[in-house]
Every structure is written in C-alpha cells, then in structure tokens.
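Subject: design request, 285 residues
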C-alpha cells in the first residue's frame, strides 16, 4: 500500500509521543465520540487546535472516514466528544480506531516539516519524448530537465516492439546552454539510427505533498522522512521552550540517532555524482 501524507503526519506525531489512541463509541460528520477512553480524562478544550486521524474503519474494509485527518475545534470532557473542522466525509462509526493529538505540534507544522525533508531528497524521473532523427546530433532537452546532476542518456536499440526497447546507456554526450533561462541542448557525439527513443533519466527534489492522499514516492523509505521530520520538529520546540525538560532532551537524542541511522540505511538511491557535460561512460555504475 502506498504511503500517503496521512500516514506520514500520523507517524511523525506518534514518534513525537504526541498521540493518544482509542475506538469511537459514536460520531457525527462534525465530531467523534469516545465515551470510554476520553470521558473525564482530559480537561475541556484540551485537544483544541490539535489533530485527529481516523486510522481504521471498524468494518475492516477501509471505508470512509478511514484515512482522513482533521483539525480539532473543540473537546468536551463530560461527553468525550471531539469536534472537528472541516467535517468528516461520513460520520465515524462505533469501533473506528482513531489517534488524537493536542496543539503542541499543529498539523500544518507537521506537514511543513515533512515537505522540508522531502525537498532534500531527489527522486528519479524518466522522459522519452526525444527521438533520433537523420543527420542530427543536437536535441533540445525538455523544459523539465533543469538539474543535470546524475543525468543519464539511454538509447533504444530495438524499435519493433513497444514492450521490448532494449535500452542501452550511451556515452559521448554533453549538454550545452546558449543563454541563462533558455532550453538546454543535448549534443551527441554520434549520429544514431533514425527513429530510436532517447530515454533520459533525471532527478528532481520530491514534489510537495499538499493533501491527505498525496503519495510518497515509492523510491523513498517512509521511516527516513518520518524520523527526520520528527527530529527537526522537536529541535524547533526545544529552541522555543528551552532545555529544562529532561524528557524532551532524551527524546531529541533518541530521534537524532534513529534519524541518522535511517538516512544511512536508506540513502538517496541516486547514481554517484557525474559531470553531465562529460556524459556517462559505458558500464559505469
């Protein structure tokens, strides 16, 4: 199953030990009720401006509102009712499993830090719009290809079957730029057979995740993003409130170590840096 922004935000909050979980005893489109775990356990408005995630549909079929998160707009301790905005797509049912956090780490802040981390991780893209032409060695690169670090050029060697292209990575190419802001030109050292696709593999920072269903690129291990975002959030809290809380200091150290291990265990799986102007030698990894 794909990892979405929903999963990432919940996992970050959980790593920060900011969540409590339970099962709904009822609900409406604008609220969730837990008359067991939440009743008289927390003060009125304790979760105000916090976040709620519906983690599992009680029926086990993944039905809504599973996978939805909302901002908490009110909490009543005498009834265990958590009010939300905007409304859930459907009312939470008895047994729906949820997670709840107060405003210590607002949802918008969690999303912002997740995207900060993603902006430093490059993911691969493929472009197959260029096709070799007779008596031609120069081709205008697609506008999307701005970052040339790690650029790879592959030549289609079999053109008779769309499912069997037999791409071969080629050497002997360079990229030229006539003026800043203009399209770059891919210059090949050889003229290749007409009608072969030039597959370009390039890397860009992970796109920003905006909405709950936006997916994390499968190229990236979720734990790397979650732990780094949680660590940075905790550092921001520590900078704001100081070093007086020993529990926070301990959690900072723990998350720092785990985030570093996750980064080294799940590196950005990009080819080592190559000078795109010199091309890529055949057989080079």
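Subject: RE: design request

Done. Sequence follows.
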């Amino acid at each position: 199953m794909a990892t979405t922004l929903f999963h990432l935000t919940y996992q970050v909050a959980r790593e920060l030990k900011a969540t409590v979980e339970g099962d709904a005893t009822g609900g409406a489109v604008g609220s969730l009720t837990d008359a067991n775990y939440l009743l008289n356990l927390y003060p009125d408005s304790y979760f105000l401006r916090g976040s709620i995630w519906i983690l599992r549909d009680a029926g086990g079929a993944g039905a809504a509102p599973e996978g939805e998160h909302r901002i908490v707009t009110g909490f009543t301790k005498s009834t265990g009712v958590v009010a939300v905005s905007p409304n859930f797509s459907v009312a939470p049912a008895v047994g729906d499993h949820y997670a709840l956090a107060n405003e210590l780490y607002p949802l918008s802040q969690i999303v912002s830090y997740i995207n900060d981390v993603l902006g430093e991780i490059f993911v691969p893209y493929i472009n197959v719009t260029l096709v070799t032409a007779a008596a031609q060695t120069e081709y205008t690169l697609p506008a999307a290809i701005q970052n040339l670090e790690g650029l790879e050029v592959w030549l289609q060697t079999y053109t008779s079957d769309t499912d069997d292209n037999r791409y071969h990575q080629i050497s002997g190419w360079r990229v030229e730029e006539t003026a800043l802001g203009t399209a770059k030109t891919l210059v090949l050292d050889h003229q290749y057979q007409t009608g072969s696709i030039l597959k370009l593999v390039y890397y860009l920072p992970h796109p920003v995740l905006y909405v709950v269903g936006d997916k994390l690129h499968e190229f990236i291990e979720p734990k790397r993003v979650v732990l780094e975002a949680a660590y940075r959030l905790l550092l921001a809290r520590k900078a704001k409130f100081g070093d007086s809380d020993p529990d926070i200091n301990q959690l900072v150290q723990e998350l720092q170590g785990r985030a570093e291990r996750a980064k080294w265990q799940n590196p950005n799986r990009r080819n080592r840096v190559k000078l795109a102007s010199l091309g890529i030698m055949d057989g080079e990894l």
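The mean pLDDT is 91.
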